[in-house]
Design brief:
- 41% of the residues are buried.
- This protein is α/β, with parallel strands linked by helices and 298 residues long.
- Helices cover 31% and strands 25% of the residues.
- It has a single domain, classed as 3-Layer(aba) Sandwich (Rossmann fold), CATH 3.40.50.150.
Length: 298
């Protein structure tokens, strides 16, 4: 947060004007927004046409890259310390990929320290990654993955990929259409794009709103609804092959509805929300905290 807050104007409580720029809806490319709330210097808006929730104004490209390159490398430590939780998510995502394609070449964009690539290598994939954080990239390289410490659009790949994955990365990309089109050029015939992203349709986001950790004010620039993601995919000549939600956040919601801090303290009821809806039913209705989506060429 120290790296984050240095961009905030103390008088307004918002990011200083020199760091940000205004934009239309990143899916519809029109101004049809309503203001939702401000948080940690950023202002979240919602498009009335596609239901995406997005930061506007948003950081200019050069300052966003500067922020990421100067940021901490704690995410890899968090993943390693709670590896069982993440491996369960990674294995579920990999199963959804392998419903469509057989193990071959896989590229993970934003691979961090390479835990997902470890899971892929064990399953027989040839593993590649892209990671901007230098420490995490070097750590992943040390585990025999081919990793590039560059922006994805700057890497001169000499192979095509049967799957390209973005684990909690796509919400960080301002121009989702640009990246989907670019990633499509990296796919082998029949290849797929997989992403795990926070869901604007999730029950936790709709109930907690600005108190929800999904909204961080700076990094999560686009929080897609399913409707918005499907529309964006269509614009990029892609189609949704598979979609599920993961992580119910039932315990967090129960805390909040019991007038407690949602994220601190013990959550006593983590399997059923107000004795009305359990985790299985929540995911059946696609109300989980994050979406796991497989895209293929239309």
């Amino acid at each position: 947060m120290a790296n984050h807050r240095k961009y905030i104007d103390s008088a307004s409580g918002l990011f200083a004007d020199r760091f940000v720029e205004n934009r239309p809806c990143p899916v519809c490319d029109v101004d049809s927004e309503i203001f939702l709330f401000a948080k940690e210097g950023g202002q979240y808006k919602k498009c009335t046409r596609c239901d995406i929730v997005y930061l506007n104004p948003v950081f200019k490209d050069k300052y966003l890259e500067e922020y990421y390159r100067a940021n901490h490398d704690l995410q890899s430590e968090i993943v390693e310390e709670d590896s069982e939780f993440y491996i369960d998510l990674y294995e579920k995502g990999l199963r959804s990929i392998e419903k469509v394609v057989k193990p071959g070449n896989i590229l993970d964009i934003g691979c961090s320290a390479g835990l997902f690539l470890d899971v892929c290598k064990m399953a027989g994939w040839n593993t590649y990654g892209v990671e901007l954080n230098t420490k995490e990239a070097e750590y992943a390289k040390g585990k025999s993955h081919t990793v590039y410490n560059e922006l994805i659009e700057s890497v001169p790949f000499d192979t095509k990929f049967d799957a390209v994955t973005l684990w909690d990365v796509f919400e960080h990309l301002k121009n989702g259409a640009y990246y989907l089109k670019h990633i499509s050029t990296l796919l082998a015939d029949g290849g797929v794009i997989f992403m795990q992203i926070p869901s604007a349709d999730s029950l936790a986001a709709k109930i907690l709103q600005e108190k929800c950790n999904m909204f961080d004010g700076l990094e999560h620039v686009n929080i897609y609804s399913y409707r918005a993601l499907e529309k964006l995919a269509g614009k990029c000549k892609l189609t949704v092959i598979d979609m599920d939600t993961v992580i119910s956040e039932v315990g967090v919601i129960n805390n909040y509805l019991n007038y407690e801090s949602p994220y601190f303290g013990k959550a006593d009821k983590t399997s059923c929300l107000l004795n009305l809806i359990d985790e299985e039913a929540l995911h059946q209705h696609k109300l989980g905290y994050k979406m796991q989506v497989v895209l293929g060429r239309a």
